[in-house]
Amino acid sequence: MPLVEGEEPSPLQRLAVVADSANGVGAPLDLREWLFVNTELTIHVHRAPVGEWMGVDAQTVVGPDGLGTVSGLLFDRRGHTGRSTQALVVRPR
């Protein structure tokens, strides 16, 4: 689905959308009870992504004061293409 109506996203734009979703994918707490607000997103790619299908394998660590980090391995149809990181603020809903 296009991020901007009328524009077809590039593979890199698709990868960025998937990377941005890592905080929900890797959530260690129930999303119905907790908010995971990513305050920044960093993406590193070691090759340009290709195609339409992207994926992320994400892990989240939440500290005792409600701060956390997310690390994600990013994939396209050819395999691993990069990594992402996010800083989080975690709060009850």
Report what the structure shows.
- By secondary structure, this protein is an alpha+beta fold.
- The protein has one domain: Thiol Ester Dehydrase, Chain A, CATH 3.10.129.
- Helix content is 15%, strand content 48%.
- It contains 2 helices and 4 strands; from the N terminus they run H-H-E-E-E-E.
- The protein has a 4-stranded antiparallel beta sheet with strand order 1-4-3-2.
- The longest helix is centred in the N-terminal third of the chain and has 10 residues.
Brief summary:
By secondary structure, this protein is an alpha+beta fold. The chain has helices spanning 11-20, 22-25; strands at 34-45, 54-62, 67-76, 79-92. The protein has a single domain (11-92), classed as Roll (Thiol Ester Dehydrase, Chain A), CATH 3.10.129.10.
